[in-house]
Structures are given as C-alpha cells and as structure tokens.
Amino acid sequence: xxxxxxxxxxxxxxxxxxxFAPPLSYLLSTPHDVYIASGGGRASGSRPAIGPxxxxxxxRQGLQRLIDxxxxxxxxxxxxxxxxxxxxxxxxxNLPLNILYIAQxxxxxxxxxxxxxxxxxxxxxxxxxxxxxxxEGPLWASI
Length: 143
Hints:
Layout: H1 2-11, H2 24-29, E1 35-39, H3 56-69, H4 77-80, E2 84-88, H5 90-93, H6 98-109, H7 119-129, E3 140-142
C-alpha cells in the first residue's frame, strides 16, 4: 500500500496535460479503437452520470453528449466503430472494486478473448459475499 501512496505523491512523472482527461489534440493524434470515459453521480458538463442507483439511460445520454459536444470526436475510430463506453469513477478510485473496472475494461478492449468474463456477476458476488451494503448497478454504460 505504501507504494501506491508513494506513486500518488509525485514520484511518477506527471501526465503531459494539466488534468486527468486528455485534450482533444492528444486523442486525435493518437486515436484508439476504444474510448472509455469515467463518470459519477455528480457528473456535469461532458462527464456522464454513471454510478450506483443512477438510471443507465442517463449514462448513455451523457456519453452521447460527450461525443456530440466535442468537435472532431466523430473522427475518432472508437466513435465511428461505436466502441464508446463509460464507467463509474468509484470502480477506479476504490481499490477493492478495481477488479470490476479491470474486468469490464478487458471486455471492452478485448471482447473476443474475454467472452467468459462477467463483471455483472462479479458485482453480484461482491454484493452477496463481501459488501456491507449492496452497490446497485449497472456501474458502466456503452453507446
């Protein structure tokens, strides 16, 4: 755990941009086959509303707003191929739930190799066997 906090304290070189989201110029110059956005319950602007207890339609609408609201996004291979996804930020920032983020991202990035992965079943198992209170899904969305 100490290594995790040491990494967050600045010993790892910073991103080449000023905030967590890469700028459009970076996305256009280094296009990828899949685009994964993060979102949360307090999502605003271009971030999708994705998280426990949130209507999945709001997450999909937020992803569409993200694409429609950014110039040139329609030129990205991931958008043209309809491989745009969003995931609850809590799965990224809450270490015990990282396995759900990894499983869902793996399915999106490598669908043929990860056919048998079932992140929804994993969430059900976490809720049944480990969680003090259930985490309502879905915690991800796609358009």
